Amino acid sequence: MADGVPRIADEPSDHVCAGCCMGKMREDNFSRSPEKTVKSAGVLDLIHSDVMGPMQTKTPGGCTYAVTFIDDFSRHVTVYFMKKKAEVLEKFKADMENATGRKIKRLRSDNGGEYTGRPFKEYLSKQGIRHEKTVPYTPQQNGLAERMNRSLVEMARCMLYHEGIDKKWWAEAVNTSAWIINRIPNTVTVKTPYEIVYQKKPQLKNLKVFGALGYGHIPDEKRRKLDAKAFKCRFLGYEDGVKGYRVLNVETGQVKIVRTVKFMETTSTGDFMTEVE
């Protein structure tokens, strides 16, 4: 199902995850069972989409919205972030159709303005994509997308709270949550969403704890003879199409993509921040 999965020690029966409680605890009678019906015959036959936001906290890039696209057949989720509600279907369509060799046939969404505007309708018509819209005030008809958004936000919230990371990095946490969801089996598909879409097993040997502390290598070209050869960082996620990690430079506050990082997933933040000061 996936290669490189690390062995995880068993937790005591009364173990409570503080981050999970802070991030997604709710009353039991409000829980819902996940949608278990596949309504399509193949990848990209039916795409569910929904907008997440606006978030109260802007990302460093100024984004307050996210839009998700979920493939009905595989349950693979793709997330794009934006400053305003805008069209991102074109990018998703190009990325996924190039990766799979298949064409999007149907798009299901609610009646939000970003999905009902004239330019969007004209684009769908030109591309031969049938638009299935929900009846007003019945979000249940777009339940798969809404539940996926809730799962992504809950996972991201848990990550941020558990690791004590500023909420402005919510997009990084959401993106990493989607990366994880795509690489684990669910109640609908026997294989992982990643394997169904890309026809190969996901590699998990580079799986890291969100917020993990570490040292990122500084290339020779970026430093002088006596400069430090590494910088303190925290793991934020993965970069598509690049063999490297997205890390936060704790001194500059900048996000870097680094290939060589020494992570310390069990080191406390306090010890790490004072270690070389």
Can you characterise this structure?
With 277 residues, the protein is α+β, with helices and mostly antiparallel strands. It has 2 domains: 18-198, Ribonuclease H-like superfamily/Ribonuclease H (Nucleotidyltransferase, domain 5, 2-Layer Sandwich), CATH 3.30.420; 213-275, no CATH class. The chain is 29% helix and 20% strand. It has 8 helices and 10 strands. The strands form 2 sheets. It has a 5-stranded mixed β-sheet, sandwiched between helices. The model has no long low-confidence stretch (mean pLDDT 88).
Provide a concise account of the structure shown.
The chain starts with 17 loop residues before the first helix and ends with a helix.
Number of E-state strands: 10
Strand content: 15-25%
Q: How many domains, as an integer? A: 2
What CATH architecture of the largest domain would you give? 2-Layer Sandwich
Shape: globular
| CATH-derived topology of the largest domain | Nucleotidyltransferase, domain 5
Mean pLDDT: 88
| CATH superfamily label of the largest domain | Ribonuclease H-like superfamily/Ribonuclease H
* Structural class computed from helices and strand pairing: alpha+beta
Q: Looking across the biggest beta sheet, what order are the strands in?
A: 3-2-1-4-5
Fraction of residues in helices?
A: 25-40%
Q: How many strands, what sense, and barrel or not for the largest sheet?
A: 5 strands, mixed
Rg over CA atoms, rounded to whole Å, is 20 Å
